[in-house]
Design brief:
- With 292 residues, the protein is an all-alpha fold.
- It has a domain at 1-98: Alpha Horseshoe (Serine Threonine Protein Phosphatase 5, Tetratricopeptide repeat).
- The protein contains 18 helices and no strands.
- The protein has helices at 7-24, 28-31, 36-43, 46-54, 69-75, 79-87, 102-108, 112-120, 134-141, 144-152, 167-173, 177-185, 199-205, 209-217, 232-235, 241-251, 256-268, 283-289.
- The longest helix has 18 residues, at 7-24.
- The radius of gyration is 24 Å and the shape is elongated.
- 41% of the residues are buried.
């Protein structure tokens, strides 16, 4: 059916699909590979999607791998198709055999609009402890706009998947500076990574000095030890910029201004950091507390 264009061709595809379902007498959701609705949703053909829905196509039809039309629309950033499917009863929390949800697909492709439509209609941030995580994939791919949207909607910035660690740790491993900064500004725990491995260990090992500096500004512990009892400076590549910066940092006392900022932010707590702009303080101080 791929590559067929035009409404007449789409009608023929639909007729073949319906006839096959009747002849085989099999539930469409259990055997279909890709239905016409999958194809239309993946290509953003809104009129075709609406036409298929009006003709009785099951909006929750699944491929063998349990991929739904909503998965396809979300992955391709076709927000109008996603909305039409949801309005017709599509399950926003459907999971593929790999545990992938439409929200995960939207975040993986940095589709802020699809992510927000899904969240507005009850999409969950996580459907299982070891399932792929939307906030982790956004952090790993540098999808900072989608990452911001997830956090605004209430995603846990410290969500820890045992085999992956926290979103901040993943951002450091993938050297995604903007995502790391967003997570830190939103109150992510600078010490929490993967098991005993801290985000600073990850950034140092990747020789990402930019992230190393950011983590230290937010109070990362240069003396933290991983499972091998190594400090961040000891896992940095020899003679690297990260190693040199960490050695210098260890030799210089922390500025009082940094200690005061960390103390105030810790006292406020993560849930209140968004209220900093409302404080009756000079704008310079507000920007200081927000690392601007």
């Amino acid at each position: 059916m791929k590559g067929v264009q035009g409404d007449d061709a789409e009608d023929d595809d639909l007729n073949v699909w319906n006839a096959s379902a009747v002849i085989l007498d099999i539930d469409q959701g259990s055997w279909a590979d890709r239905s016409p609705l999958h194809e239309a949703a993946s290509q953003g053909r809104l009129l075709t999607v609406r036409k298929l829905i009006s003709q009785g196509c099951n909006v929750n039809v699944l491929t063998i791998d349990h991929v739904s039309p909503l998965h396809e629309a979300s992955l391709s950033d076709h927000v109008a198709c996603a909305r039409a499917l949801i309005e017709a009863g599509a399950n926003v929390n459907v999971t593929s055999i790999d545990g992938i949800t439409p929200l995960y697909n939207a975040c993986a492709s940095d589709s802020v609009r699809c992510a927000e439509v899904l969240l507005e209609n009850g999409a969950k941030f996580q459907v299982g402890l070891f399932q792929p995580s939307p906030i982790h994939v956004a952090a790993s791919k540098g999808c900072h706009a989608t990452l911001e949207a997830l956090i605004v909607w209430g995603a846990d910035v410290d969500y820890d998947i045992p085999h992956m660690g926290t979103p901040l740790y993943i951002a450091c491993v993938c050297k995604e500076f903007l995502c790391a900064r967003i997570l830190l500004n939103r109150g992510a725990n600078v010490h929490k990574g993967r098991f005993l491995e801290t985000p600073l260990h990850a950034a140092a090992q990747e020789d990402c000095t930019e992230i190393v500096k950011e983590l230290l500004a937010f109070g990362a512990d240069v003396n933290a030890k991983n499972h091998e009892m190594k400090r961040p400076v000891e896992v940095a590549p020899p003679s690297s910029l990260a190693e040199g910066f960490l050695l210098l940092y260890e030799a210089v006392p922390r500025p009082l201004s940094q200690l005061c900022r960390l103390s105030i932010r810790n006292r406020m707590g993560r849930s209140r950091l968004s209220l900093i702009p409302q404080l009756h303080l000079p704008s310079t101080l507000k920007k200081f507390l927000q690392y601007q």
